[in-house]
Every structure is written in structure tokens, then in C-alpha cells.
Amino acid sequence: MTRFIPFLKAVFCLVLLLLMALPQVQGQVDGSARTTRQLELLVAENEVFAQAHTGFVLYDLATQAPVYTHQPDHRFVPASNVKLLTFFVAQRLLGNRTPGLFYQDFPDRTEVWGTGYPLALHPDFAAYDELRPWLLQRTKPLVLNFPTDAGAVPRYGAGWSWDDFNDAYVFERSAFPLYGNKLYLDLSPVDAEGRQILLGSPPSIAASLQQSTQREPLITRSEFGNDFTVGANFFHPSTFPIERPLHLTPYLIANELASAYPQVRVSSGQLPYPPPPQLSTLEVSLPDTIYRRLLQESDNFLAEQLLLQAASQRYFLPDAELILAYARDTLLPSIGIKDIRWADGSGLSRYSLLSPRHFAQVLMALDREVGRERLLSLLSAGGVSGTLKNRFDGRSETYVWAKTGTLRGVSAVSGLLKTKRGRWLAFSFLHNNFVGTSRPYFIQMERTLEWCYDNL
């Protein structure tokens, strides 16, 4: 019997050590009991959040472990939080270089195929458009090819609302986008005689506005045309600047490119994309300015075109479905994200379904791969920039950097939080199926994250 006493002592010591370590492990995963209880009061038992479907996760970036979760694996429509996934894919496949176009040179012409490059003649990015010098050097006629089968880009993503063509947030997708695929209008500064001139792009469409003296909406067009009609009070200075989506056709794109570069003879064709070995690629820069606009201003046009760019880089074909499938099957599982439904680059689709934990995983991967300093410079900063300029500003220093997402009945915020003690956290709030404004949800989210700033 006495021979077992040392063995029992060893077992007792091992159990004691495990019991002593348990609270520390539990604290790393779930936080202290006080933290958990306070966050339950702020989130799980929140009377505002109870009116909707709400999910929330809070992760420690140093340990990659959850601090607190509420319905972390429930799927939600994430709206523009999807752009975090778009940015992740673009970073993995493009970085700061992208295919500007594909082409084949022949003795009498240059055949060209689009890659989705978004900066050509874009009114906000003229300084970054590296397609311009290439076009200025052309001496042979250009044939822009718009295949009708493989390589044809649907104008809308899966699940988009077909009747949004008059709204300022839906822009058609294209292998050859020009002018940001939008009509842009503004008034010039007042001159010495008190006059202002209407400025716009594309110039040919901006110059052809029709004004109606009848009571009409601000500005409208037909679904498959660019015949813009403006209301009687349209030219009041408070109206401007204004953006509206264009309807894109091969004829329009070829004509606008020819007008912008009159020394180049431009026509359109329908040749399919050749096999990759037969294509030459014009590689151009993709500056962080584009990613910053994507994330801070939630630019839907750039989001969709970046997916086409990523597809062109990998498959030599601007096919969004191909790159979404590759992301779901390969890229995202590499950071632990599986079993999702992802339908578009912008978040306009209600088909996408992801969980709060998925967004925390994306943010932690971006923190590792992009670098925290660069990531913070690209995200909206609470009280400072982008869609958070008037949000999360209740502390003396910036403490939230995040991406927002909004659709009717949908509000989402996912990003990084730095506490007063210098602790870095990743979080994701997703709300679905509420009625009315998202303002009460933002108030409660700010209350929650302010508590995290003060106490964690």
C-alpha cells in the first residue's frame, strides 16, 4: 500500500496544478466573470438589440482568443461589411499592382480585352490612371472586344435590385469601366459676374441633360438609356455635386474613349478572350488610395471592379463568379472561414450570409498580413474619417477603426478597437431584421465599445 503513496501525491499535485491553471485559461478565452456579465448586460440583454437579430464577437488580437461572444456563428446579411472580404481577396491576389488590360498586337491593329480596371477617366483618380499614357502612345487602331459568352460581365450582381438604376449607390459592372461608370455633375465656382457653369463627365452626357418644367424627381433616366431628365429646381447649388449610374454599352464605351483620346481610332468587337499565353498584359499600379476609398467611403463601384480585377489576375478573365468560388473554396478556408454564402463584392446583395466570427477572423488575418498601421490608415476612424466621421467619438482619443454596412433593416460594424490600457481587440456587430432607423443600434454599439475602451 505504501508504494502507491508517492503515486497518489504526484496525481494530487498534477490535479492541483490543473485547477490553478484553469482560471487563467478560462480568463483568456472568456474574460473575467465581471467582464462577461457586463457585456451580457450591454449586448445579450440589451432592450434595443432584442428588437432585431443581433450577433457580436470580441477577440483579443494578441492571443487570437475570444473575449466575449453572443450568437457568434449565426449567419447574417452583412451589407457593406462584405467589403472587408473583397479587400482581403484583393490584397492576396493583387496587392498594389493590377492588370490594366489585355491585348494582342497585329500589324494593322491592336485587339484589346478588358480586365475591370476601374481608374480609366475616373474623375476622382485622374492622377492615378496609368492607362492614359499607354493610350496616348497608340499609333494603330484599337479594337475593344466585348465577348457575348465567356468573359461577358453581367451589369448587376446576384441579388441586386433591378430598379435601383436611378439611385446613386448602384453602378453597373464592366470589363471596360470609364468615368467610374457614373454621371458626375457639379457647378463651377462663382465667377466675377456671379455666374456658375455646369461641369460634368462624361462630357457628352453631361451636356445633353433635359430639363422638365413639371414637378419631377431630382434626376431620372430610363433603365436602358442615358437620357437624363432633371427637375425644375435641379440647378440650385444645394443639389451639387451629384452622381448617378450610367447604362453601359460597347457603343458608349468605344465612343467615350475615342472622344477622350481623339488621336486614337477606336472601335468595338466581340472576339472571345484568347488563351493566356497569347495575351500581353499592361500591368499598372493600384495605390492604397483606392483601398482607402473602398473601405472609408464604402465605394460600391470599386468593390465590384476589384473582384473583376482579382479574377483577371488569376484567370485572365474578369469573371466575378470564378473569383468568388475560389475565395470561398480556397482563400477564406486558409484563415478558418468556411460554410459561407458570398454573392458580390459590395454587399448590395442580400444573398450573402456570414457570421460575426467570420468577420473577426478576416480582421485578424488582415492585421497579420496587411500590418496594423496600414490597416488603420485604410479603415474609417471613429470621429475622424469616412463613414465613422460622426460615430464613436465619445472619448478623448480615437479608439475604433472599422467598416460599416447598411441596408434597410441591416446595420453592421466590424473593426479594431484599442482600449485605454493599450489592448487591441477585433470586434464585429451584426444586426438584421429591425424596423426603422439604425440610430438606436449605433447608440447602443457605441455604449458597448466605450465600455470596452474604458475597462478592458
Short description:
By secondary structure, this protein is α+β, with helices and mostly antiparallel strands. It is built from twelve helices and 17 strands. The protein has two domains: 31-86 and 316-455, DD-peptidase/beta-lactamase superfamily (Beta-lactamase), CATH 3.40.710; 87-315, no CATH class.
Describe the structure.
The protein is of the alpha+beta class and 456 residues long. The chain has 2 domains: 31-86 and 316-455, Beta-lactamase (3-Layer(aba) Sandwich), CATH 3.40.710; 87-315, no CATH class. Helix content is 32%, strand content 20%. The protein is built from 12 helices and 17 strands. It has helices at 5-30, 33-44, 83-93, 131-136, 203-206, 250-260, 288-296, 300-315, 320-331, 356-369, 372-378, 439-455, and strands at 53-60, 65-70, 97-106, 109-114, 142-145, 182-187, 198-201, 210-211, 219-220, 229-230, 242-245, 266-269, 280-285, 380-381, 400-407, 410-418, 424-432. The chain has a 6-stranded antiparallel sheet, sandwiched between helices. Strands 12-5-4-3-13 form a 5-stranded mixed sheet. α2 runs antiparallel to α12, α3 (83-93) runs parallel beside α8 and α8 (300-315) packs across α9 (320-331). The longest helix is centred in the first third of the chain and has 26 residues, at 5-30. The radius of gyration is 26 Å and the shape is globular. The chain starts with a helix and ends with a helix. Mean pLDDT is 91; it is low at 15-30.
